[in-house]
Amino acid sequence: MYTITAGGAGSSSRSGSRFSSSSSKPSFKGRGGFSPRVNSGSGRSSGGSRFQSAKPFDPKRGFKKDRIDENLFINKATISEADVYIPKHVFADFGVNAQLLENLTKKGLIKPSAIQDQAIPVALTGKDVIGIASTGTGKTAAFLIPLINKIVADKEHKILVLAPTRELASQIEEAFMDFSRNMKLFSVCCVGGSPIMKQIRELDLGVHIVIGTPGRVKDLIERKKINMKMFESIVLDEADRMLDMGFIDDMKFILGMAPANKQTMFFSATFSPEIKSLCKNFLNDPITITVKSRDTASAVEQEVVKVSTDKDKIEKLHDILNRPYGSKVIIFREMKRHVDGLADELKVRGFKALALHGDMRNRERERAISDLTSGRAQIVIATDVAARGIDIPDISLIVNYDIPNNYETYIHRIGRTGRAGKGGHAITFVPERKGGRY
Ligand code: AMP
After folding, report:
1. Which atom of ligand 1 lies nearest, measured to the CA of 107?
2. CATH entry, 300-431, from 3.40.50.150, 3.40.50.300, 1.25.40.10, 3.30.420.40
């Protein structure tokens, strides 16, 4: 395993063969699939940052919080010259398919971001990649561009992308569809909470890329609808989040069934000991590419607002939401019922506010995201899990109505704004009295 800052360009190309031809490669029907039963207990594991610690679960209060120094919630936004990455390539340098290149340009991807600039040339050579990069750095395109290029060169090439949440999985599928427009490539999004029979039908018809959450993918493997042996490329996106969400056994189960001669790409915001150990066991001589994660946080103007009572808190929020930067807002709360409560309160006060949490149906969650994206809603109030990885352009403000459990969660939350090199604003409510409730 070694680390680089930039890699040489190159492209893997094999003679193209027609999709769903009479190839000897295993099909999605899963014949001959071997699926030992493995306990999929959902033990939580920490992401391993110095701010994070595994705290015991209290049924009344939830997970105990780390005490985070308030000063960490304060930052003057700085998008300095030094933060602006100067890419060594333009997308055309990568020698990828012309239609793919045209689609990237149409989506406004002109200059590669740091992770793209460094990961794409390596991935195109077929080497395993560890990308230490958080959301907002352009990592989706960093793995999709080389992989789409592989499928066009060999339509039998199949890809599996694992993501921690349904929202992130469907965002990746959307990006895949945008980047592969007019290329006759097929995808399926295999996530829990959506009808499994529809996913099975798609799998039976044949797809080039399966994007899914670990639990549902494991279920489909066990039903022999996904045969892991057919994947030549596997991506784990936001691997640290998957660990946080207790997917470790499912991840090991899935990776353990993959063929030996595949390409694996592993993306994570942190490189904790658990991530290191997974990489050691499942990756083959990987190249590690690290992108500074301060880029996002430093572009976000962060401040604290002191609050003394429930009434004080809601009044201050009301005032903040009427400020110029209150046009497109995500408010974070810890508990689902508190998310609903605040959404109702804001609606009564005349705001276009919607809730987003795991007890809602997929369709309702998608509506909340699309209404905020289009501007039909001004505010989404969300739990951390529901908002993980969502990419809504131009979020102007993040409000931490409840203080996050640990500093990493804080960084993930504020990373919903200040994306793609743009600035943003984050406000955290903290108790006026030291050790107070608010
Ligand atoms: P990601 O980190 O993959 O979630 O991407 C974050 C956002 O950055 C998405 O809205 C992308 O469309 C956008 N993006 C990704 N790569 C580029 C690029 N090279 N130039 C401009 N925007 C980009």
Report:
1. 12
2. 3.40.50.300
- Average pLDDT of the residues in 279-300: 81
Cα gap 206→72, rounded to integer Å = 49
Kindly state the helix (H) or strand (E) to which residue 339 belongs, with its residue range: helix 336-348
DSSP letters of 149-205? HHHHH-TT-EEEEE-SSHHHHHHHHHHHHHHTTTS---EEEE-TTS-HHHHHHHHHH
The structure tokens listed for 140 are: 């989706």
| Number of Cβ atoms within 10 Å of the Cβ of 63 | 14
Element (H, E) at 427: strand 424-431
For residue 136, the CA-to-ligand 1 centroid distance in Å is 6
Cα–Cα distances (Å) from 212 to 187, 195, 235, 237, 340, in that order, read 11, 13, 11, 10, 27
Q: Which of ligand 1's atoms lies nearest the C-alpha of 133?
A: 2
Residue with tokens 């905020």: 372
**Burial per residue of 376-393, b for 16 or more beta-carbon CB atoms within 10 angstroms, e otherwise:** ebbbbbbbbbbbbbbbbe
pLDDT in tens, 217-266: 999 999 999 999 999 999 999 998 899 889 999 999 999 999 999 999 99
What is the dihedral sign for C-alpha 238, 241, 245, 248?
positive
CA 419 / ligand 1 centre spacing (Å): 8
pLDDT greater than 90 at residue 305: yes
* The two domains 2-50+57-290 and 300-431 share their CATH topology (first three levels equal): yes
Overall average pLDDT of the 6-21 stretch: 28
Atom of ligand 1 nearest to the CA of 112: 19
Position 242: which residue type? M
Which CATH class name applies to 2-50+57-290? alpha beta
Q: pTM to 2 decimals?
A: 0.64
Domain range list for the chain: 2-50+57-290, 300-431
CA–CA gap between residue 152 and residue 184 (Å, rounded): 9
Q: State in Å: Cα 7 to ligand 1 middle.
A: 20
Residue list, ligand 1 pocket, CB within 6 Å: 108-109, 111-113, 116, 135-141, 391, 393, 419-420
Residue 139: CA count within 13 A, CB half-sphere: 29
Ligand 1 atom 5: residue of nearest CA: 138
Residue in 101, 132, 167, 419 to alter for ligand 1 test, most ligand atoms within 8 A of Cβ: 419
d(CA 146, CA 281): 24
163 CA → ligand 1 middle, Å: 17
